Amino acid sequence: MSSLSGSSPQRITVCAPRLTRSSVSLVFVSGGCFEVDEDLTKASLYSASVSICQENPDAAQFIELRHCTMGGAVSLHPGVPEHVFIGGPYFYHAKGSALDTSDRIFAPRSDFDKHIHVAYGGPGVPVTSSVTDRTGLGLVLIYPADQTRGNLTIEPVARIEGQRFGSRFGHSLLFVDVNGDGWDDLIVGAPYQHFEALQGGLPQYGAVFVFLNQQPKFPSPVHDRSGKNPFGYESSDDYQVITPPKKRQKYSTPSLSGYGATLTKIGDINHDGYQDFAVGAPYGNTGGMVFIYHGTKSGRIGPPAQVISAADILTTTKLRGFGFAVGLQNVDLDNNGYPDLAVGAPMSDSVAILRTRPIIRFDVYLVLPDGSVDLPSNLNSLPDCTIEAQSLTGYKAATVRCLDTKLFATYSSIYGLTCDSGKKYTLSVLLKSDPVIQWLLEGLEDSRPGSHRPFQRNVEQCGAIRDPNAPIDLPTNPIHSVLAVAPVSFINEQPVEDFGEKALPFFHTNESANLEALKTPGGYVTLQVKASCRNGDRIGTEPDLAELNSAENLRLFFRDTDLIDQSKPISIGAKWNADIPNPTPSTHDINKYPIADPRKNSQILQLNFTNQCTDKVCCPRLRVTYTAKVTRDKQGPVVYVGDDKTQEIEIKVQVDNIGPDPAFMLALLSEYSPTLLEIDPTVRKVHNVRSDAAMCHLANPLMPGQTAECTIRWLVVGHQLTVQMASFFVNSSLVMASNIRTTVDGSLTNQLKVNVKMIVKVSVSSLIEPKTVYFSGNVSDGIKSIAVENQIGDARLFLKLEIRNERTHSLVPASKLVIDWPYEFVGDPAEPHGKYLLYLLDTPRVTQYLLPTLEKVTSNITSVICDSRALKKLVNPHHYRIFSSLRRPTDSVPVRSEPVDLPPGHPNSYPPLSEGLVLKPYSTSSEEPEENRNRRQTTISCYNGKVRCVPIVCELGKLSYKAGPITLELEARLWDNTMREEFSQVFLTQLEILATWRADVKYGIDMDGSDHALGKVVLEIRNNLEPRPIPPKYMSLYIGLAVFGGVLLLAVLVLILYKAGFFKRKRFFRRQPRGGRPLSQAHKQGSRGDRSISERPAAMQRLEPRPLRPGGPQLPSGIVPYSSVHTSNQHPELTNEDPDQRVSYR
């Protein structure tokens, strides 16, 4: 479970803390350590490691004394290398001890008042202490050697505590120099360090803490009872926490893997100049895991360079607990220059010896067909590949140039071993144009000497000669990101997003670095190449003929040669995977099975230009002048929406090279709003490189003393505006090479702000009827005495507002009308409520003509929406009875009611309220009567502080010239009681009602210098100075008595008339008596009692035909005239009555 390289390279100490020996009736878990040779064949037991447990006289009585676990930790004596310290964490009732091979026993101190929790220390001896109140967090104490006295002090120089309870911080310890500064750094394992679960996952356990040595900060040793605190790492910036790889990386571990249970140093396994170490996770996947970490210059440890799983090792017995012990500590068993590793699996009684395979370095080269890496200075001399480049998406110039190159690979040993010249390995190479450093290094640090050249930014002085061995410079030009195109492209390249998981095998240590490819434009392309051997004497030399013949052809495409920065090389990133066979456990010569360094599979490939700026640092000096041509008003540049006239915006730049060095890749890039602007096609040399960007090339290069200028012109058509905006910007910038320092007289950028406005002609017409109203009478009882609307006041007011778009072919997409409604008169501004002034009777109504649309619209639907909050407060709040019959007959409909806010730019409050009226003489003319000259008048409105107003905000929707006006109607009554109380001494009161129209758009409105339309109506309120008569108190009683008296008098009159015979019917008599007697006699007989025909019984009467005039029309037979009466049956003498006889009725 623990191991140690011995005092000589040929001897190794191996321990088995669970070594068991049985006697007749007792079982001893004594543990023990063995010393073996380098061939692992001869082993000798340290007898003291076993006898210390078995020879205890009390062991037969206590089982705890038979459980010693000697060999839980092993270390060399710091002063006497021949002596070995062996730790037994469970020795003597789990107090622990350290045994020297000289048979000296070092037991823990026992002079403390109490002991805290003692955890099994695994490879380390447990430490007990009473000077802490953080029980269960774990503790590490560092004790320095006292060189003056030749012994160890017990006064700690540093104290480091764990972070979480039960984390077992200090379970394993390791001193190793991970940053190469000559000081050993401390690594502490905490296998049960708890980390909160991510969403949808399980909590993670296990961590390793890396504390870099800060020896200059260490104070003198401090006694643990002195009350002083030794040095500690307080800030999280002072140390690094390493956790198991997460699932998004190449390797993953289960939640409870025991990560950090063991730590061991393995030397410089990759020969980069920094010490490496291994971390064990005995409960990892499929039996346990071991993680290999490489040291770095900064001391920040990156992802594991290699993960060894028990399932990867071919054995006859399944390994369990693989990683409980990791040892050998920099021992090279096969003398191949690389330290080997031993991993214990105590749960399967096995130890795995892992021999380190030699590491080879692969190099990938990109050259021209002749083997050179120099590009021509004039890229326009390259072949025209425009037709072949049609498959490339994105921006391309009118002419696309291409270049044929060759790609080949070589390999060599990093430890000086020779390679087989006939042996070749297949590489799968992933190429990316213009990559970033993070993509290449996968978050790791720059390489050390002996590997590839490091990547960093050059900071050389102007005019300095460039060092060919200087760090490779990887500047990225922002123009390529703006245009979303790489400097060079490949046929059949795929976007990074589409390449997907096929790219992950090329990222050996950090798969998330694949996302760094999205930071620069360009996609992926893969090639298969054969890597041939290159021994040390040929590393870095030009390719030979055999390498060129075996190389793969690769064609590069230049989308726009003017966008190639010739002051720096063309850079292409390369990552590769090597197809190398793996050895078997029976392989004798492991050197025939090398392995590629998993952290060194990236390289930058470059093709160079030849000019004066490739040999020295160029620093050109430019003078830049911008000019703009655009329509302007008082607020600056402006364009008008809906204007039929064509408008233009023009940006011109002039660049003069007034310095000694050339300037490369000069171009003018302008970004603009494509919804309003379009490039003028008549201007040459201007390209739409993006839907919202245009570019004009100036020069590549611009030599000293030369001048270049460029103009970009846009056309503005007002009806093209589809997105509302108050203004837009035309941002222009001078693009140039990013690899050179440029001094600029003027500015590289120019921003032109252009306001967007609409020319509008909108009118608001207002009318109120009646225009003049009167009030008089006496003060009433107030609100509670009113039941119907006419009790509010005599005058019913009709307010009409008409909003009309008077500009031909004009359409305002959205607008609002704000009516300042005079709600209350303010007597005392301190009072929250005043007295009603205008009482709104009903919801406003609207008359509107809607333009025909595809949707079916009913006739009673309107687009006008008024603020429901204001209407709720104003419209008949006391629910008085309203006479609908008094409403004027119109085609209007009620407005819709929803919350509507004030339009932008409208004041959100009224002026402060003030007390008292401002009175003025009604007439100042001397010709007026004295009575008029003594009268007073005043004006009240929402904006002079006399009236408390409520804004009625109405959203009108679209206001079109073609659709006609929108008419709003409001009906209200003047609250007469307020006028009687507050305006009794005022003859004329002028009440102003304002209505403001504003467009509800983001762009500006131009209405002859204003941005709104105003409508005002003035209501004249006159005092007639005549008080109304006061009615009696019992007026209803009096009225009732009067009605009763009248009814009684009428009844008396009717009775008198009845008694007087006024209602008796009159009789009638004949004019001539019967039987031919004289009329006088007949009358006399009638007076004596003869009855007339009318008085005879009805049965005795019948109708008789009336004689017709001679010669007149004759009636048909059977028809009797209705006017004739006869009684032939009773009085035959009347049958032959003379025609002149008549019947008289009275």
UniProtKB/TrEMBL annotation:
The chain crosses the membrane at residues 1037-1058. GO terms for cellular component: external side of plasma membrane; integrin complex. Its main location: membrane. It is found in: Membrane. Signal peptide: none annotated. GO terms for molecular function: integrin binding. Residues 890-916, 1073-1146 are annotated as: Disordered. Keywords: Cell adhesion, Glycoprotein, Integrin, Membrane, Receptor, Repeat, Signal, Transmembrane, Transmembrane helix. It comes from the Eukaryota. It is a single-pass type I membrane protein. Residues 901-910 have a biased composition (Pro residues). GO terms for biological process: cell adhesion mediated by integrin; cell-cell adhesion; cell-matrix adhesion; integrin-mediated signaling pathway. FG-GAP repeats lie at residues 155-220, 245-300, 306-371. The keyword Signal applies. Residues 762-995 form the Integrin alpha third immunoglobulin-like domain. Residues 1124-1133 have a biased composition (Polar residues). PANTHER family: INTEGRIN ALPHA (PTHR23220), INTEGRIN ALPHA-PS1 (PTHR23220:SF122). Belongs to the integrin alpha chain family. This is Integrin alpha third immunoglobulin-like domain-containing protein.
